[in-house]
Design goal:
- The structure holds 3 protein chains of 3 kinds.
- By secondary structure, chain A is mainly alpha-helical.
- Helices cover 79% and strands 0% of the residues of chain A.
- Chain A is globular and about 70 Å long.
- The model of chain A has no long low-confidence stretch (mean pLDDT 90).
- Chain B has 11 helices and 10 strands.
- In chain B, strand 1, helix 2 and strand 2 form a beta-alpha-beta unit.
- Chain B starts with a helix and ends in a 9-residue tail after the last helix.
- Classes of the chains: A mainly alpha, B alpha/beta, C alpha+beta.
- At the A-B interface, helix 9 of A face helix 3, helix 4 and strand 7 of B.
Chain lengths: 228, 263, 361
Amino acid sequence: MLSEAEIDALLLSLRVAGVAVLFALPFAIPVALLLARARFPGKILIDGLVHLPLVLPPVVMGYLLLITLGTKAPLGAWLLDTFGIRFVFSWTGAALAAAIVTFPFQVRAIRLAIEAIDPGLSQAAETLGAGPLDRFVSLTLPLAMPGIVAGAITAFAAALGEFGAIITFVSNIPGETRTLPLAIYTAIQSPGGEVAAARLAALSIALALAGLALAELAARRVRGMQGR
Amino acid sequence: MPIIRRLIRQAVVLAFALCSLAPRPATAEPVTVFAAASLTDALQVIGDAYAGRGGDKVRFSFASTSTLARQIAAGAPAQVFCAANVAWMDDLERRGLLAAGSRVDVAGNTLVLVAPKRHDLAPATIGAGFDLAARLGPHGRLALGDPAHVPAGFYAAQALRKLGMWDSLARRLAPADNVRAALALVARGEAPYGIVYATDAAISDQVAVVATFPADSHDPITYPCARITDEAGDAPRAFLAFLTGPEAAAIFARFGFRTGRRE
Amino acid sequence: MLSVQVRHDFPGFALDAAFDIDRRGIVALFGPSGAGKSSIVNAVAGLMRPRQGRVRIDDATLLDTEAGIDVAARRRRVGYVFQDARLFPHLSVAGNLAYGAKRAPEPPSPAEHARIVDLLGIGHLTARRPATLSGGERQRVALGRALLSRPRLLLLDEPLAALDQQRKAEILPYLEQLRGTLPIVYVSHSVEEVTRLADEIVVLNAGRVAAQGSVFDITARLDLFPLTGRFEAGAVIEGRIASQAEADHLSEVALDAGRLWVPRLDAEVGATVRIRIRARDVMLALDRPDGISANNVLAGEVVDIREDEGAYLDVLVACGADRVIARITHRSLHRLQLRPGQAVHAVIKSVTVDRHSATVA
């Protein structure tokens, strides 16, 4: 039913988006916590930096990644020499680009969830003998879970559709970085590629709908766990 | 209320100010030219020369030939189209979008193999025994225009197939959206080798030509130009004439294009 | 046992209160809203750090700003029941109860756990989620949660304020049962709650301690009436059940100065009861009246008269060792020519029996 190239693109998209979200999550949570709770000079700067990918053209983001993490750039060269890590032309680079571009979605959702937690609960936990780390794990994290899930799913959906940053940073290598959006783009560019483009688009839509359905199920499950 | 009035007044003043920033229309509209990426530098110099001679200002849009062709087919307001290959120009001609009889070849090009410039880079000959796959190493990729839709990539694939090197390289490619992007990959050192036009290699001082592909390993690389039918007026016609004239030919030659008119 | 001294500046008023409690019973922090009661308990719990203050429980110093001592809230082992219960929504009742128990230095034994759950009647709720509980149930769970963390002091900040009368009535007995098991500080602005539960009262007004004393003494002080609430104010006295009149559904309570008949109490003869007599339910007569419906008449002597705005004033009458307050009009005062020392009879229309147990010393 699906050609090999189409399956490649589909699996690659899922892998890139999945890794992007999972990789960014452990960073998104502390950043969201910081923005929600801490007060310090320069907080607005951090806030702005986190949200930069939302307003920056994705191509610019891809370009920034290229000049910092390309194999000849200082950081990129160091990574290559020390760990053998190469982002350009690699699906890991695509995942990194997607992770950065969708980071703000996760941070926003988690931050909102944390801010919605009644501070009185934290006080109550304190009187019951819970320290800050304890309160984070036993109280904040579980109560913020709907936000975390929502953020992750939103980020996943956005990562599936990420184009500009990926194509600029890691190019358009079939089987390696040619995710669904890039595959559609390639098909459109090629003479006679309209049919292929349409098929890929249909596949993308099906994927998006499946993602939305899963998101709703997950959200319900989490709400149930919280007794709501 | 007075505040509202003041705000409105300020808004009106601002609007007028912004209007004055808009470029005043020239006595004639600029000529809109859609051209293949590989013609970028040469055409810009030609455009300046044209304006310097008292001609109209020329507004260029450079992109891959396929992108431009699709845009024109979808109604983009191009007046002149310079393609990097024949197939796309044929396509537009079939659709009846070209001004009859305006099509003409303005230049030609050669295909070269490039690598990031190093002091120890030795020139080579592409022929029997030239193992490009081995030269790429375990991780390296060959940068080139996407053979599926970029003319330079199409020619490159043709050449590689003719020379029997396609099978060993098919999975080692880094297909780029246009030939300049392929060049950039090599210039940045991301790809150890790339296949671009001789004219592109000449632009960048960060790449060096390793070898030239034999002319018989691919179809002749020509750049057809034509006027788009919708556009009336003399300005496009005049510019196209300039493109095929001696002054433009000299500029093309300076950039390394073959000027077919000579032959 | 509990020694508190707190000074702090809030926008609008300055808190400067100090009091020592020497008993294990229930101590009420009483006063109008905004008097600083919650701030004091927050300072005791460690949730708020006052500008200057000292808090000591037994021989442990929890706070001494001058000596630089400020034990973190989570280490103070002070249980806290909030006005809004603050149960953790993502945990079941069992999970909530276990939260404090798990973090106590020595967790409660299963026997103790069962005892507290039984005491509060929440055993059947353990699998439920806080969102599905009624207000009263939530407070009982909050109480259990605080108790299971084995605190050395229990603070309750207006725990019944958010409940309706029925729920309040449900919970008060549970609170009574806690008396004597550990020191309790109970914050409230409800005279009814305080006179029922407290053994000692600290009256706060505008950030300062206005008075401190046993519940009997404080409720008998006319000068505190503006603070203790005019409508519900009244004396509180302790008596013993002398007999039960089954046929009339009445119980006889023996006081120092006489007998009172109250609606039948489900307690044994000889049991101690606490009685509250609202000032507005007391009429004064120069002679012992005949032919009236009131069964309860106590003989006494006028001790103090307190003028007030409006038509009414309060008269403090000593009936033996007990005090009764009557609220009468100026006109009546002049008509009867009442003055301190005058012998009078207090005619009591209705009596509220607040509690069936003795005050804790």
